[in-house]
Amino acid sequence: MDLRDLTYEVEDGVARITLNKPDKLNAMSWGSWAEVETAIESANDDDDVKCVLITGAGRGFSAGTDLTEEEDDVRPRPYKGRTAALRTVHLCTASVYECRKPTIAAVNGVSVGAGFSLSLACDIRIASENARFSAIFVKRGLSADTGSTWFLPRIIGMDRALEMLYTGRIVEAPEAERMGLVTEVVEHGKLMERANDLAKEIASGPTLAVEINKRLVRDGIHRNLIEQIETEEYLQQITLKSEDAIEGQMSFLEKRDPVFKGK
User: Does 134 score more than 70 pLDDT?
Assistant: First the structure.
């Protein structure tokens, strides 16, 4: 992949996407978002990728939209034909949210505006003690975008979401953990170690079961309980036929840790 604003590497089953404009606190142009979409689709299509980790280079995760970039900063997107014509770049965070693989945001610093939405689109957020969050749009006289009004109430509840959206205030890492905005806060120097360890732990699991669990939880928001249980039963039949399910049963009988292969 020919990427200018981020790096993409795969190691130990983990695809690491690093936003790489540290001089601008990883502020995102529309070209940057196109590259995020490309990286996510590459991870989706690669069976060797079992978890996706997103972070930022330098002092920040992402300072939101890069207002200094040229508006005609057009770069290839992973969508073709009518799909490309009908899919607005504003759906970039939806691409992250809909990633079939588990996603982790390692938030190393400021995460505001559209950059805040990007962290919210991930399944899990591990934050450095230096992390700061804001739905800063209102401070610029703008209503919110990139899905923050959809993500926030689902993560922290309606009242807290609206308070953040109404005020645009900065939420420091300890408060973010208390309100459930992030999963965990760690010392700044240990952020990537912790995030990488978690990503590798997930990547070492039974891939089919993990990906189906993600699908069940995400889609289950829109189902009633009976529909969800029936869907669980149906999809579990896929995992029952997998090599990893056989390994899980054998390791239990043999009283040893399972060694999953993602098959």
Answer: yes
Using pLDDT thresholds of 50, 70 and 90, give the confidence band for residue 247.
confident
CA 26/CA 64 separation, integer angstroms? 8
Structural tokens at position 187: 């010392």
Predicted pLDDT at 231: 94
The pLDDT tens digits for 119-130 are 999 999 999 999
Reported as a pLDDT band with limits 50, 70 and 90, residue 112 is: very high
Nearest to 58 by CA among 7, 11, 1: 7
- Please enumerate, as own/partner, the contacts of 177-180 that have beta carbons within 8 Å and a separation of 24 or more: 177/127, 180/155, 180/156
Check if 197 is active-site: no
Question: How much is the pLDDT for 44?
Answer: 96
Where are the domains positioned within the chain?
6-203, 207-253
User: 116: helix, coil or strand?
Assistant: helix
Choosing from 145, 197, 222, 244, which is the catalytic residue? 145
The CA dihedral of 96, 97, 101, 102, to the nearest 10 degrees, is 110
Annotated active-site residue in 90, 159, 188, 244? 90
Rounded to an integer, what distance in angstroms lies between the CA atom of residue 174 and that of residue 171?
A: 8
Q: Which pLDDT score, from 0 to 100, does residue 68 have? A: 76
46 flagged as catalytic? no
pLDDT tens digits, residue range 84-94?
A: 888 887 889 99
With both helix axes pointing from N to C terminus, report the angle between 225-240 and 207-220 in degrees, rounded to the nearest 10: 170
Fold assignment, 6-203: 2-enoyl-CoA Hydratase; Chain A, domain 1 (3.90.226)
